[in-house]
Amino acid sequence: QVQLVESGGGLVQPGGSLRLSCAASGSIFSINTMGWYRQAPGKQRETVATITRGLSTIYTDSVKGRFEITRDNAKKMVYLQMNSLGPEDTAVYYCAADVRPLGSGLYRVYWGQGTQVTVSS
C-alpha cells in the first residue's frame, strides 16, 4: 500500500503565502518524479510544478517566480511554497508521485486526496 497525504491548505488573503506538504508512505521501493497539481471549480486539473529525484523542476507559467517546489528524498516528502497568492490560485491542490512499490518492477502514479487552497479577502 502506498499513500500520499497533503497538508497545509487553507484560507489566505491575496498577496499572502502558504506552504503545502505531501508525505509519501507505505511499501515504497523508490520514487521518481513528484508533483503538485490543482483543479479549480469548473476547470480541468492542471500541472502546477514537478520535481525529479535529481531535483530538476518544471513550473507552469502562471506560477513561475511565485511558487517553489522542493523535496526531501530521505523523508519521501514534497513541498510547495506559494507566495504572492491571488484569487486565481484558488483550487484543490493535489500531490502526485511516480512510485515503484516494494516487490514491483514497475512505477505507477499515486495521488493524494487533495487540500483546498482559497485565496480571498
Describe the protein:
By secondary structure, the chain is mostly beta strands. It has no helices and 11 strands. The strands form 2 sheets. Strands 2, 4, 5, 6, 9, 10 and 11 form a 7-stranded mixed β-sheet that branches. Strands 1-3-8-7 form a 4-stranded antiparallel β-sheet, with no helix packed on it. The N and C termini lie far apart (40 Å).
Short description:
The chain has 121 residues and is mainly beta.
Q: What are the salient characteristics of this protein?
A:
121 residues; mainly beta; 7-stranded mixed beta sheet; 4-stranded antiparallel beta sheet
Could you give the topology of this structure?
Elements: E1 2-7, E2 10-12, E3 18-26, E4 28-39, E5 46-51, E6 57-59, E7 67-72, E8 77-82, E9 91-101, E10 108-111, E11 115-119
Parallel strand pairs: 2-11
Antiparallel strand pairs: 1-3, 3-8, 4-5, 4-9, 5-6, 7-8, 9-10, 9-11
